[in-house]
Specification:
The chain is α/β, with parallel strands linked by helices and 169 residues long. The protein has one domain. The protein is built from 7 helices and 5 strands, in the order E-H-E-E-H-E-H-E-H-H-H-H. A 5-stranded parallel beta sheet has the order 2-1-4-3-5. The longest helix has 16 residues. The chain is globular and about 35 Å long.
Length: 169
């Protein structure tokens, strides 16, 4: 299975989870969008379709791609034409030290691990997180949601399920 990080060089390379995954041999990092396989699942916060277990075959065959960029520049980054089958992740809570406890502000490794978990590659998702001392915290914070999303029968069901995990204010 291909796990790809498209790195836009907008973050501190010493704190970058995508680069660390590559150093451990768990992901391929590219510095240009031209390396995104056209049929792969591209994780995009702007997609109108949620990632679901129905995307498993696509991930298995073509891979999953995360864009590693600064949250401050995310709008500009995703204005670019990016190939791939775009999917957004459902509501999850970040456990990384920079955005701990913030909803949807996931690091690259959290996004990739969540995607793998949701489509049914749970062991692979857990393996990615194991590289980081705070990785198990991501699973603890999101286990109930990840389990629910991984049992959904469609993208629409994932979108409905996330309402159960969004706090009412």
């Amino acid at each position: 299975m291909r796990i790809i990080v498209i790195h836009f060089r907008q973050c501190n390379p010493f704190k970058c989870t995508g680069l660390k995954l590559a150093k451990k041999g768990l992901a391929k990092v590219f510095f240009s969008r031209k390396y995104i396989p056209g049929r792969s699942v591209l994780l995009s916060p702007f997609s109108i379709q949620a990632l679901s277990p129905t995307d498993r075959e696509t991930v298995e065959k073509w891979g999953v791609v995360a864009v590693d960029c600064s949250w401050a520049d995310i709008d500009e980054t995703f204005k670019l034409s990016l190939p791939g089958v775009q999917r957004c992740l459902p509501y999850l809570i970040a456990a990384n030290p920079t955005n701990y406890g913030k909803p949807t502000k996931l690091s690259t490794v959290e996004a990739l691990a969540a995607a793998l978990y949701i489509v049914g590659f749970k062991k692979e998702g857990v393996r990615l997180l194991s590289v980081f001392k705070w990785g198990p915290s991501f699973l603890s914070l999101n286990r109930e949601a990840l389990e629910a999303y991984s049992k959904a029968e469609s993208s629409l069901e994932v979108a409905r399920l996330q309402r159960l995990f969004i706090p009412v204010t």
